[in-house]
Specification:
The protein is built from nine helices and 13 strands. Helix content is 23%, strand content 18%. The chain is globular.
């Protein structure tokens, strides 16, 4: 019912992982309805801080300057392409000037972990619990670059200017006596929508898989309901390829699981606005993607789109061929429909969650046979206790824009089957 080649392709084409690495990671999962894991609240906060710096660097040939974003246990491993990306991350490190004002992100720490840089937070900056691991992002690359020497050189520059470094986790640094205003605290500001920033960082190769990729930059903006993430996407050539972009961003299996608010296009560009599903912590914001024609000369050749298994594209010959004997997606739909009702047993037998999983297994068999199937789970009205949205910032006086719910894909299926 699963093709490990197919699901590893779908994940690796967005994260940049090697096919073997994605296959090993996904092989440990019990189910495959989420191929790129969602970060914990503390981990997402750290990742959103880092992507806010990476997304502002210019001259990158890869989105955010990241070649690979590999989930590892509860953390993330980034492989960057240039020393400029490393220097941009160093610009976030906190230091104390002679006259007292702070620079950088207070509470951010970094140290060498073997040949890699390990970024994290001081313990007073995040909520500690027994079920949540300490947030960590490891940075490796670029090839042949001595990261320890780069960090030592940055340390020397700060000290030569008469400032004191505050990013060594071995040297304790107390937190601020008062809560810093969100306008001055990058961590507090990003916390409102940290999950959205983390989702972008964990799928860096989405952007250069689209037609005409020429660059991408990221910015944030405080709003009356939270924090918006704004992506400026440069495209070389006439094709904006927004259809595939929307398909991935709204997908639950390999994408971000967002819902579309609106989509407007003209001859010069396209703008897509997407919002999260209601009730998701750490998603209080709107993702806006502006696709504009790059102001390059005609000598720049627009790269073509790369195949994305996640949206049903045909794989290139260098990729593993999955289910080659299945019919093409373009064949006519088969007539007829089957409805199978499965009820919860009255006795203490199969739990409701297990029963829905059994229904998905039944539907998956039909899907692999080329059928379009759906699992409809009827739920009773929710009488649970209301939980306080701890991700709601003090300045959020308005609700996040509402979106219309749609069908949720349950897994990547060989065409023409859909589940």
């Amino acid at each position: 019912m699963y093709s490990i080649d197919q699901i590893s392709n779908a994940a690796a084409q967005l994260t940049g992982e090697s096919l073997e690495g994605a296959r090993l990671r996904l092989g440990t999962l019990q189910r495959f309805d989420q191929l790129v894991p969602v970060a914990s609240a503390n981990q997402a906060r750290l990742e959103s801080v880092l992507v806010s710096a990476l997304g502002a660097v210019t001259g990158q040939t890869r989105p955010f300057g990241v070649r690979e974003a590999k989930p590892e246990d509860e953390g993330l491993v980034l492989r960057v392409e240039r020393a400029e990306e490393v220097q941009a991350l160093f610009g976030l490190l906190p230091s104390l000037t002679k006259k007292g004002p702070w620079r950088g992100v207070r509470g951010l720490v970094v140290q060498m972990d073997g040949a890699r840089l390990r970024f994290g937070f001081r313990t007073w900056l995040y909520e500690q619990s027994w079920w949540s691991a300490e947030p960590a992002v490891w940075v490796t690359g670029p090839h042949g670059e001595d990261l320890a020497a780069l960090l030592a050189a940055h340390d020397g520059q700060i000290r030569a200017a008469g400032h004191s470094v505050q990013w060594d986790p071995q040297c304790p640094a107390p937190g601020p006596k008062r809560k810093e205003p969100a306008a001055r605290s990058l961590v507090r500001r990003l916390s409102a929508s940290s999950a959205m920033g983390s989702a972008l960082l964990r799928r860096p190769r989405l952007w250069d898989s689209l037609a005409g990729y020429a660059g991408v930059q990221v910015d944030t903006r405080m709003t009356d309901y939270g924090l918006d993430w704004i992506v400026e996407r440069q495209v070389a050539g006439p094709q904006f390829d927004d259809a595939r972009l929307i398909e991935v961003l709204t997908d639950h299996v390999v994408g971000c699981g967002l819902r579309i608010l609106n989509h407007t296009c003209d001859t010069e560009g396209c703008t897509v606005r997407l919002a999260p599903r209601p009730g998701r912590w750490g998603w209080r914001g709107v993702l806006t993607v502006h696709s504009r024609k790059a102001s390059f000369g005609s000598y720049i050749q627009a790269p073509g789109p790369r195949p994305l298994t996640a949206v049903g594209d045909r794989l290139s010959v260098s990729r593993p061929q999955t289910n080659a004997s299945s019919p093409d997606r373009g064949v006519p739909d088969r007539d007829g429909a089957v409805i199978q009702l499965t009820g919860v047993p009255l006795t203490d037998g199969v739990a409701r969650e297990d029963l829905s999983w059994i229904a998905e297994q039944i539907a998956a068999v039909w899907t692999t046979q080329g059928l379009a199937t759906a699992v409809v789970l009827a739920q009773d009205p929710d009488h649970g206790f209301g939980l306080l949205d701890r991700g709601r910032p003090a300045w959020a006086t308005a609700p996040v824009p509402e979106t219309v719910a749609g069908w949720r894909r349950l897994r990547v299926a060989p065409p023409p089957g859909e589940l």
